[in-house]
Amino acid sequence: MPRTQTKLAIAVGLAMLALIAIQPLTVTSQTIGALEPRFGETIVALHRAESAGATSSEIGELVVLLNNALALNVEALKLNAPSDAPGRIELLAQVDQILTTVTNQAAELTAVAAQRTFTNKVLAYVGGAITAVLGTIAYAFLTSFYQRYRVKRTFEMRVTRKRVSSLLRTGEH
Amino acid sequence: MIVVFITLLVICEMVAYVATTPRPQEQFLQLYVLGASHMAADYYPNGDTDIGIGEPVTWYLGVTDNMGTVQLISIRVKIGNQTIRPPDDQQGLGSPAPVVTEFMRVLQENETFEIPFVWSVSDAVSVAGSTRILTLQINNDTYQIQDWSARDGYNFRLIFELWTWQTDANGFQLGWTASGEHRVAWLQVWFNMTSPRPTLG
To answer: Could you tell me if residue B199 is inside a domain?
Structure first.
């Protein structure tokens, strides 16, 4: 039993070593063309955030990060010599990191913006209904006030005799 | 009173709908090349279309995003001669001329991306009556050109194609699609190179 455990531990250790060793190779194989789909995925994530109602300033911060990633990508493309391989790997790893960050932030932004847009819509429609209720109450109040005013004016009227002399002068009577 | 309430409710909800619904707008991208004076003029040094070896030419290259969304764009710079086919607007195909370089950028809504485009023919030779451009220098980077020539050095052209990332196709395509229609934007500027090095070597 202890021997089996030792073998298992060695196997796990070797697997982990293999994974660590493979990691740089994976980054190296990411050429500009290979990274294009990653950029595409981030663009899709940004489109989702925009559709959810993210503001241009919120999107702008992510766009700046993406453009930094593109600039690093171009720098990596220029490092063609075999001796430049470590520098290229580092740059591509940074690009990869930025793309992951942007995708994650875009997903968070989508959730926040969707919630905010929903709240704003609900507030706008509820506000509309409240305005309609207040408007109706104001209308009712104004109507009753006007009617009371008319009644009051009617009761305040006085009966006075008309002056006929002026009418006689113009010959209308 | 109910009629008044319903009327007010309809009006207020319509206002709420208009306020919370984004307005549709015309979607397009704009590609431009300006001359040294930052205008659609002065494309050549001293107004002479014949460019000498090492003579720098300054242009400004720009794209404006009016698509209403973020766009990943690529301006592909190609070098061509008189006979090469230009981009096909109908089919949405790029020119078969070789790509010298490309400028990629992520653009926000209503954002303009503009860069100085300073280029020169750093090496060209005359081979059997044709001028062959060997290297182009663009913004301090040197690009090798493979087998590209023009008869007597006349009618070379730099072609600028605007490509955009299509999320549904997961790749770049020439132009863009808006409201179900495919649109293409490309430009070309002609030049001559009649004074190359005499022979190859």
So the answer is: no
